[in-house]
Amino acid sequence: MPRLKITKENMAEIIKPVSGQVDYLDTELSGFGVRATKAALTFFVYKRIRGQQNKTFVPVGVYGTFTPAQALNAAKDYLRRMDMGENPHPKAQPKVETITIQDLYRQYISGKKTPLAASSVYQYDSWMKNHFSDWLPLPANTITGSMVLDRLSLMEKSNGMTQAASSIKLLRGLYRLGMALHPGVIVHNPVEAVREVRGREWAPRKRRMTYIESKDLPAWYKAVSDYDNPKGHDYMLLLLFTGLRKMEAARLKWSDIDFNAKTFTFTPEKKRGEKPEDDRVTMPLSVQAYRLLLQRKAQGGENDYVFPGKHPSPYLSNPDNYKRDIIQTCGVKFCFHDLRRTFITIAESLDIPHYALKALLNHSMGNDVTGGYIIMCTERLREPMQQIADKIMELATVKPIVEDQGQQAA
């Protein structure tokens, strides 16, 4: 093989053959050379990889794309790697897997040992669509800590602290799963930058304690009673009289209502820290709830659900417009879970036994050994359920103002 010092000036001395190939070896760096063919001049390294018997040819790049100086630097790196037993040939490199944010989210939703509640999936879908839609097609390893911090600040300004923190925590969960499933591809969690910059308690979560207070209940109840949307009227009152979560009530079917026994059966939402003992729970209906459902049934249903939805959902999936209408009418701000808190707050004020309260809300007995021995049947809860409903009606009734007799005489 001919030899020459591979420099920009000496490249002019290399003549391309009419056919075949001619290799020129560098006079200074052993294993570095130029291969001349009719089509191009290609820089290469040719050396034995440590641990192998035969030499390996590895192309570096074509002259014109690479200068001799650039090719020399690349060749030194290739030769160093070959000395360490690595094959730097492009075809020998493992194919890099690309995992996008969308891929991580799909795996997060579908890979849970315990399937997520439909309400949780709905909420997560909303956060991903509203806050990370532009990130979904991006490779997950291209998201940096500074990008996460910028997005968090933007969400805090436009959506509030709570929603921003919850959305970022969801993103953190995606990356934790990605690092476990794809350790060679997802090698860092960019959300950790938030804790590094803002500290460990960057998003302290406070338990929501709002409910409809006694002084506001008459105005709220009147607004709902006068509401010109029958489905919205019945839905919100049923939440108040039963303490159901919003989607537990929305998914009720007529087959779940036993008008003879005056009971209803539902599938509880499984929340963290709340593990229902049974998949289906049967509760008594108060007189108020029974009459409400009986009247609703008489009006005729659109399908099997007590509160039918709009296509494609067969049941009521987004009742927020009812809430907005009532708030606008009476000025009492509330969320649907406030009705559940109102129900149990009124129940507690009646000195209903502790275990009956837990049963009415379908809260797990957890590690309560005594509670595990108590069999709380449906009929045992009928009297407490009726007491709560009666108290709600008492508090919701606007009492007439009676003038003092002395004032009347004056």
Structure overview:
With 410 residues, the protein is of the alpha+beta class. It has 3 domains: 90 residues, 2-Layer Sandwich (Double Stranded RNA Binding Domain), CATH 3.30.160.390; 98 residues, DNA polymerase, domain 1, CATH 1.10.150; 180 residues, hpI Integrase, Chain A. Helix content is 44%, strand content 10%. A 5-stranded mixed β-sheet has the order 1-2-3-4-5, covered by helices on one side. Helix 2 packs across helix 5, helix 4 packs antiparallel against helix 5 and helix 8 packs antiparallel against helix 10. The longest helix is centred in the middle third of the chain and has 21 residues. It is rod-shaped and about 105 Å long.
Notable characteristics:
alpha+beta, about 400 residues, 3 domains, five-stranded mixed sheet, three-stranded antiparallel sheet, 16 helices, DNA polymerase, domain 1, single chain, Double Stranded RNA Binding Domain
- Give the proportion of residues in helices: 40-55%
Order of strands across the widest beta sheet? 1-2-3-4-5
N-to-C span: 127 Å
The low-confidence parts are: 272-277, 369-373, 406-410
In total, how many domains does the architecture comprise? 3
User: Which series of helices and strands comes N to C?
Assistant: EEEEEHHHHHHHHHEEEHHHHHHH
| Percent of sequence in beta strands | 5-15%
Morphology call: rod-shaped
Query: What is the fourth-level CATH superfamily of the largest domain?
Result: Intergrase catalytic core
SS elements, strand count: 8
By CATH reckoning, the class of the largest domain would read Mainly Alpha
Mean residue pLDDT:
87
Give the radius of gyration: 35 Å
Q: What fold name stands as the CATH topology of the largest domain?
A: hpI Integrase, Chain A
Structural class by helix and strand composition:
alpha+beta
Taking the sheet with the most strands, its summary is: 5 strands, mixed
CATH-derived architecture of the largest domain: Orthogonal Bundle
Number of helices: 16
